[in-house]
Write a structure and sequence with these properties.
Order of helices and strands: EHEHEHEHEHHEHHEEHEH
Number of helices: 10
Radius of gyration: 20 Å
CATH class of the largest domain: Alpha Beta
Number of strands: 9
Strand content: 5-15%
CATH architecture of the largest domain: 2-Layer Sandwich
Strand order of the largest sheet: 2-1-3-4-5
Structural class: alpha/beta
Helix content: 40-55%
Shape: elongated
CATH superfamily of the largest domain: Reverse transcriptase/Diguanylate cyclase domain
Length: 318
């Protein structure tokens, strides 16, 4: 396993390197700037398996570096953990939006580093397996119509849409909010109520495209509030919105409807896609303590997953 550590503070680099070596990691390379890191990546004989990036660096921030790394196909699923003293929500949102798997705040506890790395490696592996399965199934669903297809309950990975995170990264984001004691956040659930009709009307690849297009409409409609979005399957999208969002559910719903109409979603044969949805607000509550917030987030994620997998149609082909 090869690991890349990036920080402009040589003391932090030395500390992280010694910590990882104590945990049994070897073949560790370090860089003192974003550009130096990109040079190492460019000239590496094989892709790095793990990266820890500082956020606050001159010339190129860790967030910009993370985004540049994620733009490389070979690093689509590599665990990238931000190590930072900056714990305000804007920086955390930006880090996850750029593709971070997780983050650790300074000053850090050694065991916390090990724990977050283990979780990030596991989550990235699971995300890669899910994406590979989705691509394989989508390919089988095109053409002859034979073979397996994506299920309506599958948490289809969505790429190249601003603010849309893979499911494991979104879960990490919510859990981190609890650890950082954010006193209030606005969480919303968008449910596509006619997702079964869209599913039955589409083959696997087309259904994946429709799920992605809907996510893009939501992202565009709420862009001014910097939403972070994840798809849980079965037409369920969870949205974390900046607490400065003052629009009502009715106003946000109208914005999303308008964006869907403007975009003009269509099936492969050119016929229009009708998207019916309901928007629920889970954010009108204060979290009294980090523990209560984490408990709420875990419960919400569990309920979403149960809803996404409930009453799923058969895997029969179209």
């Amino acid at each position: 396993m090869t690991t890349l550590l990036v920080d402009d503070n040589p003391d932090i680099l030395a500390l992280l390197e010694a910590t990882l070596e104590a945990f049994g990691y070897s073949n560790i390379q370090t860089a003192a700037s974003g550009q130096a890191a990109l040079d190492l990546i460019e000239n590496a004989p094989a892709p790095f398996d793990l990266m820890l990036l500082d956020i606050q660096m001159p010339l190129m921030t860790g967030i910009e570096l993370c985004s540049a790394i994620r733009a490389r196909p070979e690093y689509q699923f590599t665990p990238i953990i931000m190590v930072t003293a900056m714990s305000d929500q804007a920086h955390i949102d930006n880090a996850f939006a750029a593709g971070a798997t997780d983050y650790i705040t300074k000053p850090f506890q050694f065991e916390d580093i090990k724990h977050r790395i283990t979780l990030a490696e596991r989550a990235s592996f699971q995300a890669e397996q899910l994406a590979n399965n989705a691509v394989a199934l989508a390919g089988d669903g095109v053409g002859s119509g034979a073979g397996p297809r994506l299920g309506i309950e599958d948490a289809i990975p969505i790429d190249d849409v601003d603010g849309v995170l893979r499911l494991h990264a979104f879960e990490n984001y919510l859990a981190q909010m609890g650890r950082l004691e954010f006193s209030r956040t606005r969480l919303e659930i968008l449910t596509v109520t006619n997702i079964s009709a869209i599913f039955e009307r589409s083959d696997s690849r087309e259904f994946s495209d429709q799920v992605t297009d809907i996510a893009e409409c939501v992202s565009d409609a709420m862009r001014s509030f910097a939403p972070l979005i994840a798809y849980f399957g079965r037409g369920l999208y969870c949205i974390a919105v900046s607490s400065r969002c003052t629009k009502t559910l009715a106003e946000l719903s109208a914005d999303i409807h308008a964006q869907i109409e403007t975009t003009g979603l269509v099936y492969r044969d050119g016929s229009p896609v009708t998207v019916d949805f309901e928007l629920y607000d889970l954010g009108k509550r204060s979290f009294i303590s980090p523990r209560s917030q984490v408990d709420f987030v875990k419960r919400m994620i569990r309920e979403l997953k149960l809803a996404a997998h409930a009453s799923a149609p058969s895997m029969a082909t179209n």
